[in-house]
User: Fold this.
Amino acid sequence: MMETFRVAVRKFPPFESAIVKQWHSFAAASGSKLAIEAVALDLNPLHAALFDRREAAGPDWDLAFLPTDWIAEAQAGGLVADLRPLMTQRPIPDFPQAWTPSLLGLQDFAGGIWGMPYHDGPQCLIYRTDLLRDAGIAVPQTWAAFHDAARRLHDPPAGRSGTVLALFPDGHNSFYDFCVQLWTRGGAPFDDAGRPQLTTPAAVAALDFLRRLAADRGAVPADVRAIDSVASGMRFCAGEVALMANWFGFAAYAETAADSRVRGRVGIAPLPRGEGGAAVSLNVFWLLCIPAGSRRRDLAWDFLRHCATPAMDLLTTTEGGIGVRRSTWADPAVNRSVPFYHELDGLHAVARTLPRHPRLSEIAAAIDAMMTQAVTTDAPTASLLATAQARIAEIVG
Assistant:
């Protein structure tokens, strides 16, 4: 049996195709005879494999995709290799100046560098330019206007929902959506010491809005609770969603994918805001990490260096992901294909991050559980928030 270079990939078509093409380019340049084995896993199975079964500590994987949410947990559990010594021996050309600082901090802590940015795309408003124009609707700047636009553009007979939420309980996007709602209303999910602060008027307003929207069958699809972030992005690409708050990458994918039904009709804007809030985005990105148990650490680092080159970062973009180098964001050809690509720098200027905590997955799960109750029961909002706050206080304490 032929030996392979095994990569644990977050299941998403652009990731799957890009990493395979990048390996083929690397193998041609380096002379490696290994074939790539890219194993695509959804979020929960990916976490279960790398963390729960601790496969990252053994010889199963040579490289792994990890979101920045998980990097503190991975480092604390001894599941990822420190890249700093490798970087000292064989540096990445033009590192770090070719990347925006907001893509370099979350993985640089405890004296080490625990991953290289691979795919980015802060949250933004994504909308169909033709639908808003034809209906005479201005690009929503507030959440109330967003909800109103979703209701006006909701058209089930045409196979289109006004908007969509990623409510599938995967421990991620419900957490993200709640934090965004809180930030854009002038609140914050945690104080400066990392303690939860969910029993505030802004938190009540945030959760109430999400509950109303999730229950509004005149704005969202009937199966909204079964949809995750990737599915929501694919629905927009298929012409089944009029506007949504989602990751920049889905807008770029909808503008470039061969099977997209909305090419040339995609627009982005800053996220709407609530009363007392300001323009905010959320910065969570995907890293390429070397598992602690990788048997091919040096080869994996050489491949990481290859993926970090301008040409390979550009390939991530042309496959439908979001490159992480500023050169890619400003590339004339990329901006001809995706006219809003250059706006990434502006989104990063207002992007916020979640706390780096080794138990962030548990914190996210507590918010996820709160959101599930919020959209499936009549429990009072204040009670749900108080319960979630108490659970998170136990975790961080």
Summary: The longest helix spans residues 13-30. The two ends are 49 Å apart (CA to CA). The mean pLDDT is 94.
